Amino acid sequence: DHYDYGMRAVRSVINAAGLLKRADPDMDEDKLLLRALRDVNVPKFLKDDLPLFENIIIDLFPGVERPKIDYGRLLDAIHESSKGLNLQPVDPFVAKVIQLYDTIQVRHGLMLVGPTGGGKTCNYRVLQKACTSLKELGKFEPVHVHCLNPKSITMGQMYGQSDPITQEWTDGVLNILMRAAVKDTSEDKHWIMFDGPVDAIWIENMNTVLDDNKKLCLNSGEIIALSPQITVMFEVEDLAVASPATVSRCGMVYMEPGAMGLEPLIDSWIEQLPSTFRQSHKDLLHTLTKGFIPNGINFIRKSCREMVTTMDNNLCASCLRLMDCYFDSYRPTEVKTPSKEELDELQKQLVPIFIFSLVWSVGITTDQHGRSLFNDWLWRELIKQNQRPPGLKDDAFLYDLCYNVEKSEWVGWMETIPGYSPPSQSTYDGIVVPTLDSVRMTAVFKTLVLNRHHALCPGPTGTGKTVNISQYLGREAPEYLQSVFITFSAQTHVNQLQDLLDGKFEKRRRGVFGPPARKVFAIFVDDFNMPKKEEYGAQPPLELLRQWFDHKGWYDRKELTFREIVDVCMVAAMGPPGGGRTFISNRVIRHYNVLTYPDLGKTSIATIFNTILKYLFAPFDESIQKITETLVESQITVFEKALKELLPTPSKSHYTFNLRDIWKVFQGVCSLSPKIINNKLQVLRCWVHENCRVFGDRLIDDPDRQWLRKT
Questions:
Q1: Most buried by CB count within 10 Å: which residue of 86, 261, 356, 414?
Q2: pLDDT at 232 (0 to 100)
Q3: Do residues 427 and 459 touch, judged by C-beta distance below 8 A?
Q4: 3-state secondary structure of 487
Q5: What's the CA dihedral at 179, 182, 185, 190 to 10 degrees?
Q6: Positive or negative, the Cα torsion across 594, 599, 600, 605?
Q7: Contact 88, 272 (CB under 8 A)
Q8: Containing H/E element for 562?
Q9: What are the residues whose beta carbons fall under 8 Å from the beta carbon of 577, sequence distance 6 or more?
């Protein structure tokens, strides 16, 4: 999408050659042109296309050696800045930073393009910090970055708009940023960074800014001319819906995650482990992470099916974040420093903690069948790499076990909670029965949220996502963790969402907002993927949240100033894409630990409804109480057969069944009164009647109705 070889691309090569000629008038012109061609074109190529380009260059310049480029102190500053930001200055990353620097020299408009996790944001931040640190040398100037997500506000709020009634002009966010950059008469550089999807709705208004005019023309008649110190940048995932006119005006730097792999992520994480960790701790974690995480992700990609598409670096980061939840307590504080005995014990616990984290990050995004496959693969790898955890049988299903750090042992999930019996005076819809699925998902969710890591829970309808999250946040969460519940719909507008959230925040200090002092907001967004996509695929409400993830705030639409938002944890739940639900951008998903809810197993369904019926049928005759288990078993059979045989077709598109249908059947059965019903035949008749209402009323022809009667 971002390849362009028009006249503007030719002109960029000529500009680059001119700059090089002025910098070194005595350089051989073949070498000079070779370097200009490479500097302008190499940044935009995918790694698979680079060998082809190199071969073309060799044919064009036979026998000409590639000139060695001296960037002076810049390379050292890039390495120092990378270390300062806890990044690894690996060669592919440093090469891309240099390419961005070269592109800035010849273009005043450029795009950082590539899938999420490729290092686009880190690239310009490292270069900004490096250039600013070299300001004493004279060749470099301090750099100021002004960030804006163009889809987190409307186009009128971005460029400015006139009131349709009073015709009064209101400035937009971009106008303010541009004016502030233009007014600066010093030699400082200003980068206006548009971090969001590029589409024809808003980008066409930037054409005069990106071409040689270098002017932003507003509807009010005002024209803002860019100074030579201003560079306009765009950070985008792809340019699938950008017009060729826009693509040709911009320089391109393409960054792909595959070029760097997962090792830099792991190395950066190892470096920021608690200072109390010994070298033996770090060596073991280094061996485990590099030995299992990349192979585990490859296995998920090849053999398992994911409900929500994830990126490799997201799964790796999720595993590291989950381990951090257990390691944060070892960071030294004024109150406590870990003892030698605790660190000795930790050495024994590292393998179990890693296995638990791997299962509940990399292995959690797949369905029930994929989990069985992943469990078998993990056991094979543990035995192969001689890392078998003590106290576990070789055939143990790791998803059914929880590692208790305090006792240093593996226990079943149901052993981690007290026995459950419904509270007295409970109604049918007020009983929430803990099952194996709900207990383990809530426990992992709780671990993440208490350590301020963000969680996304996708899963089929009726699997208890909203109930589990709401119950924990509403009843079981500590007092400092306050919840904000939001439900998205197809018509959710980005301004509505921002107003709703801004109304909950209090002012901490100038430009900083958040929950009341010493509190943390857990913002729970249900139906996360429901907002309707715009014409070109953007979802503004999600882009507003992503702006907080990436830049820790958003713009006040009245004051047109940036609001920093602190002490917030994001939680979300969503159904699988399809119907009104959409596929959402990986640039949003990557900030979350994905905890996929699978379809409930037969055992879990039976546990839920047996518990409810046993409680609600206690006042009935003993003969009626004896048939409750049979009713549940029969209902599960009817449900499973309906799923298998009553499949949706174009004429039967409403033949979709989920666990809520079982819930509706027993809701009717449990509304019977013991004062009126005194034999099991009446209960059975009611059960049949409810099945005819829930399942039968959905059927459209006699063969299907006949099938239900036989079943």
A1: 356
A2: 94
A3: no
A4: strand
A5: 110
A6: positive
A7: no
A8: strand 562-565
A9: 308, 529, 583
pLDDT in tens, 62-109: 877 777 777 778 899 999 999 999 999 999 899 899 989 988 988 889
Q: Could you give phi then psi for residue 537, rounded to 5 degrees?
A: 100, -5
What φ, ψ does residue 246 adopt, rounded to 5°?
-75, -45
DSSP result, 430-466: G-----HHHHHHHHHHHHHHHTT--EEEE--TTSSHH
DSSP strand E in 237-297: where?
Answer: 251-254
62 vs 42: CA distance, rounded Å: 19
Q: What is the pLDDT of residues 492-541, one digit of tens each?
A: 999 999 999 999 999 999 999 999 999 999 999 999 999 999 888 899 99
Pick the closest to residue 633 from 599, 659, 609 (CA basis). Answer: 609
Backbone CA torsion sign across 652, 654, 656, 662? negative
Structure tokens at 540: 């503004």
Mean pLDDT in runs of 10 for the chain (711 residues)?
74 80 79 80 79 82 77 88 92 90 88 90 93 84 93 92 88 92 91 91 88 89 92 91 84 85 92 91 93 93 90 93 92 84 89 93 92 92 86 84 89 86 82 87 93 93 88 91 93 94 93 93 93 90 94 92 94 86 91 91 86 87 86 90 86 85 89 83 90 88 86 77
